Structures are given as structure tokens and as C-alpha cells.
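Q: Sequence in, structure out?
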Amino acid sequence: MPEANSNQNFIDLLDSYFGDQTRDEGLSEIVSVSRRNAAFHADVVAAINAAIAASANCDDAILDAVRDRFLRFRRDDDAVREFLAELHKEYMRQYRQATTAPN
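A: Exactly. Output:
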């Protein structure tokens, strides 16, 4: 059941880094770890990409996880997909900035 494991990896990421803070605060915390740990970065990218793929396949576990944690007003499937795409884009932007900035 690799799909279920991928879903759980993403849900664990949400719960660990976004449970009690905003999306931007959670992303900042993830980037602070991943910029020093290539394996963690690969895991984060894999988890987000798996969630994007799962949402495209209307996977209720991912759709509900994002709705329950982040979406207050617009809660349709397209809103979840847009949120995940933006999460990926912003994570990559912050990661590139953190890994190319002078120490």
C-alpha cells in the first residue's frame, strides 16, 4: 500500500510543521531543517508531490486533510489542489533562497 504510506507521510508533515502555526511559519521551519539535510528535503518534496498526485485522483484522505487544516472558506477540490500547488511553489522558492544565500 504505497499510496496510503505516501498519504500518511504528507499528513505527518502537516501535523508536525503546520499543526499550531501558519503555513508560512511551517514552511520556514521546514526549510530551516531541509537546507541542512538533503534527505529531508527529498522527503518533503516527495510528500508534497505525492499529495498533489493524490488530490488529482480525488483521494479523500489528502483532500480532507488539507481542508480540515487550511481551508476555511473555499473548500472544494480545486481549492485543495491550488493550495498544494502553492505550497510546493513557496517551499521551493524558500528552499532555493535558503540554499543559495551566502552564509
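Residues 77-100 form the longest helix (24 residues).
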